[in-house]
Design a protein that fits this description.
This protein is mainly beta. The protein has three helices and eleven strands; from the N terminus they run αβββααββββββββ. The longest helix has 15 residues. The relative contact order is 0.30.
């Protein structure tokens, strides 16, 4: 027999004896996609001199409002399927007193939509991590957030800060978005 005939016979045997199943597209109904995205949120460094006003009087708290565009920059499809977000913070406090942070998400009218549990960091804590999980189903207003207000309040020790002190307080944060979608 010629080699071409042998190959043809083997190919026919393979095709006619091979197993097959009909495609079941209903299996796609059970597929759930769960992508996770992480993005930097806020990062800042504070030194003691920032707690003094223009005439040299120490303030025990400072507040800053920052625009955030994480939820505004993702598509409506992503927002529709967002199930959870995690607020992560890494904090280094070289100061000789504790600091309490309040983190609040605001909408475009500066109305409060979500407040995180206050973050309390003791004096000279150099490696503090914080995580707060937000379930969107229980806090749908968080989807309207486009600003974050952070207030840093110093522990009142009875002694003033040294305006020339170079020790720092470093705050780094991120948000992790959990999306869940099925076909």
């Amino acid at each position: 027999m010629k080699p071409l005939n042998k190959i043809s016979i083997l190919l026919c045997l393979f095709v006619f004896n091979s197993c097959y199943e009909s495609l079941d597209f209903k299996q796609l109904d059970a597929v759930v996609l769960k992508p996770i995205f992480t993005s930097a949120l806020i990062h800042f460094t504070i030194v003691p001199s920032q707690f003094f006003d223009s005439v040299g009087v120490q303030q025990n708290s400072i507040t800053d409002i920052t625009d955030i565009n994480i939820l505004n920059e993702v598509s409506n499809v992503v927002i529709e399927y967002l199930v959870k977000l995690d607020f992560n913070a890494e904090i280094k406090n070289e100061l000789d007193r504790g600091v309490t942070f309040t983190v609040e998400f605001l909408n475009s009218n500066s109305d409060l939509v979500y407040t995180f549990t206050p973050i309390v960091i003791g004096a000279e804590v150099l490696n503090y991590t914080y995580l707060e999980e937000v379930e969107v189903v229980f806090n749908p207003g968080i989807l309207d957030s486009n600003k974050v207000r952070i207030t840093a309040e110093l522990e009142n020790t009875g002694t003033p800060l040294d305006i020339n002190d170079t020790r720092e307080f470093v705050f780094k944060s991120s948000v992790t978005l959990y999306i869940e979608s099925s076909f």
